[in-house]
Structure prediction request, 569 residues.
Amino acid sequence: MTHSPSDSLISMQGAGICRNGRWLVRGIDLSVHAGEIVTLVGPNGSGKSTTARMAIGLIRHDEGSVTRRTGLTIGYVPQRMSIDPTLPLTVRRLMTIASRHTRSAILDALQVVGIPGLLDAPVQHLSGGEFQRALLARAMINKPELLVLDEPVQGIDFAGEIELYNLIQDVRQTSGCGILLISHDLHMVMAETDTVICLNGHVCCTGTPEAVASNPEYVKLFGQRAVETLAIYRHHHDHTHLPDGRVRHADGSITDHCHPDDGHHHESAVSPSENVHDHA
Amino acid sequence: MATITNLQCRPLKTCMTMLDDFFIRAIIAGSGLALTVGPLGCYVVWRRMAYFGDTMAHSALLGVALAFLLNISLIVGVFAVAVTASLVLLALQSRNALPTDALLGILSHSTLALGLVIIAFMTSLRVDLMGFLFGDILAVSRLDIAIIYVGGIVVLAVLIAIWRPLLAATVNIELAQAEGLNPERARIIFMLLMASVIAMAMKIVGILLITSLLIIPAAAARRFASTPEQMAVYASLIGALAVAAGLFGSLKFDTPSGPSIVVAALTLFLLSLVTYPGRKPPATSEPGT
Prediction:
């Protein structure tokens, strides 16, 4: 997996976002190339969505650099999206919200995500899983160069989840687009992902899943059981981001920022009563 | 204050002699306005902007007062103040000091009050205040009809031009922005369209009732539409029907025209809520997979 920086769709160096004197994310290095799947994992509030939104320019970075290839076309599935009940919208109309498509192209796209029968259903009547599939079909129908999927499998059951991740993999192979994927569920995306970036307000660790999985740091990070049995992934961080932006470490010391070598996540060092980022 | 107490909603029957002429003018002007307002009203409902529309409408009275004071055209004064009010709102919103509904309340009522105070100060001027607040169909001239139709066609043409980005932004603003649709520009243009429509609607239904002409036909149309475009068209037609029914009612019962139009619209809305036997229930999705 060798890429020169120039052929990346999106590239970020040392990027960070500061709001009201607090760094939401900081020191993010990330790049996505055509045909590559990059997955952001991390606990709730670790800045996964913020990082993705910064990458596609929805929020401006306050430090570092964010560059997108000129004329880059993006397909986006936002994390939380609800459609006002007063807006009459069928799945068919949802598919053409950003650009025009023929009926057969729409049907094909819905067929791919497994909901061809819902063409004329009002979106407000879809189940959570059906709605996510429709959103995924909508993002893909425009054949974008970059797909940004923020928790695309939320509300979808286990079997459907595997199916959708296989589908995302297929899309990458057939269309050659780059994919920036956000997931709270690392082991589900392991097989399909080229690069994993673990966030906790900063990049904790990064690399190919294989390289990361064989790394002792990774075992510490995700727990021996998760690695061996692909059991539920639990994630304890060894430090807590305090409301004032400072960081409390497992040994009780408080510093202004995370250290660059943070990522030594000692599960055993954290007691459950502490306000650690916990994530199942 | 004498100027205010003398003013009344002029009942239609007092002008029986010119009935045919003004009545036809009123219907032509009113339905032209309703056709224009329908699609905009849908966006007001979808985007939950009812109080925003109200605020822009209330600020119209300040526009009227300033137009008299500066001796400029009423429509220009109302348009300028409505646009200014929405810009002030955007500026205050970005400071995050107060919630939007409080800001809207402040802007809405202070602009209305400022307008009333300025008009009261201009003692030399006799202003048909009730006409501005509740509409004055008798005052609709051929020029007004021309303004409503030319303005209406321009408003609808611009709305069609920004339809895709505006609708995408209504569905999800970040999605629209990420996929390069420039929703911010569409939003600002939509605001200008609202200001234009309020300036045009003032004479027909009056400042206090403009928002109802935006919202009620759109709400009545919701039940019958399965796409946004259908709802926009139905809202226009229901609005035009409400104008015609309201004006006939106003003639028959000798009631003020603006409120009569709103009552007619309300009746249509209530009818839209009735379940008809044999009407198929809204399509439901298949069971989840």
